[in-house]
Design brief:
alpha/beta; 5-stranded mixed sheet; 3-stranded antiparallel sheet; 15 helices; 10 strands; 43% helix; disordered N terminus; disordered C terminus
């Protein structure tokens, strides 16, 4: 390198460095991608045609003409409007720039920067707060579904923004999950193919333990029964199943755990008599009954954890009311935010809209248990399953 070239490199080096810091000041948190590209794939280049003088003027000019050479292509530094407004405010606060000068550097119209929306979110905020008080464990997606049911045509992104600004966001505990490889639960293609059965424990005001027997359909996700009592013998369980079967018929399979009520001679004899095959999950593997485990989690989160049961009869009344709400009102994410009753009605509809055609999801949400042609073997209870999505 010649002496003249070396002097020119020394003169341009500080400008390059200032341009890098100027870009960092203008971009803020978004400079991570720029710095990574500089180190890995390219370098920063400053056009000094319009630079005049030294010091602060060079610093200002470097912001205007900052470019990134990324894989031999010049990419202009473009930010979203919100980020550019924040960058202008940062330049005003840290470098004493005027508002007009900052807008010129970031290529933002002064009128755009000064614009303040006249739209009021107070009616939506009030409505969301009222719904959140009625359903304290609903997130913004389900609240958005309830708003649309009431005829409020509002964008889900606006609902989320107002929802967060109102402090209504639900704090959920993040669980650490180990990486496991397993087969998903066998998808069902019609109602009454499989019922899932399990128990949930709780207590009443006096401290007496109660149990809730929950039965759900694996396809429609309907809650078929929620029986509350202090204990459940095997004959009591079969009476509940017979009451359900009198309304909708018997299933082909019943998925359950290995509790004494579900492995007794009476229960197994009842299954043989009614030609129902029990699918007992492996001991210590509740994920093999993942659909009902997810349902029990929602019931505990939305009902048991926020309710105070004075006695057994009060518990039965509140549990029955929640079951009706779950089947008829509550949006279900695995069903495209339809209710279980609405989804079951569409699946059983006559004509071309019935059967598999009724499973098309108009809301654009994926169904975790869509139709499949895969069969289900009689020895499926020995398979290893992973939980399916159910919320």
């Amino acid at each position: 390198m010649t002496e003249a070239g070396g002097d020119q490199h020394q003169r341009r080096a500080p400008i390059r460095e200032r341009a890098h810091h100027a870009g960092a000041a203008a971009v803020g948190d978004r400079t991570t991608l720029i710095e990574r590209n500089e180190v890995k794939d390219g370098f920063a280049e400053v056009n000094t045609d319009r630079l005049s003088g030294h010091g602060e003027s060079s610093f200002v000019g470097s912001v205007r003409r900052f470019r990134i050479i990324y894989r031999r292509r010049t990419i202009p530094l473009r930010l979203e409007l919100v980020a550019r407004k924040a960058a202008i405010e940062q330049l005003q606060g840290e470098y004493a720039f005027s508002q007009r000068r900052g807008c010129e550097l970031l290529q933002v119209a002064v009128g755009t920067f000064r614009y303040a929306s006249r739209r009021s979110d107070e009616p939506l905020r009030t409505r969301l707060t009222a719904l959140a008080r009625e359903k304290p464990r609903f997130g913004y997606r389900r609240l958005h579904v309830l708003l649309r049911r009431d005829g409020d045509a509002v964008n889900h992104k606006r609902v989320h923004r107002v929802y967060r600004a109102a402090g209504l966001a639900i704090r959920r505990k993040k669980r650490k999950h180990c990486a496991r490889v397993g087969q998903p639960l066998t998808p069902r293609t019609a109602p009454n193919q499989e019922w899932a059965l399990d128990f949930v424990a709780d207590r009443v005001e006096c401290g007496r333990a109660i149990r809730v027997l929950s039965v759900a359909d694996a396809f429609t996700r309907e809650c078929l029964a929620l029986e509350v009592d202090t204990s459940f013998a095997s004959p009591r369980v079969t009476r509940v199943l017979e009451a359900i079967a009198a309304e909708r018929g018997l299933p082909q399979w019943i998925r359950c755990d290995n509790g004494s009520e579900l492995t007794s001679r009476h229960f197994l004899a009842w299954c043989v008599e009614h030609k129902v095959e029990p699918l007992h999950i492996q001991p210590g593997r509740p994920v093999q009954n993942g659909r009902l485990e997810s349902f029990n989690g929602r019931m505990r989160d939305e009902l048991l954890n926020i309710s105070w049961f004075h006695n057994l009869f009060d518990a039965r009344r509140k549990v029955a009311a929640w079951r009706r709400e779950y089947n008829e009102t509550r949006p279900h994410s695995s069903l495209g935010y339809l209710t279980p009753h609405a989804f079951a009605a569409r699946a059983a509809g006559p004509g071309k809209d019935g059967g598999r055609a009724a499973l098309e999801n108009p809301s654009g949400f994926p169904l975790s248990h869509g139709p499949t042609t895969a069969g289900f073997s009689r020895g499926a209870q020995n398979e290893t399953h992973a939980p399916s999505t159910m919320a």
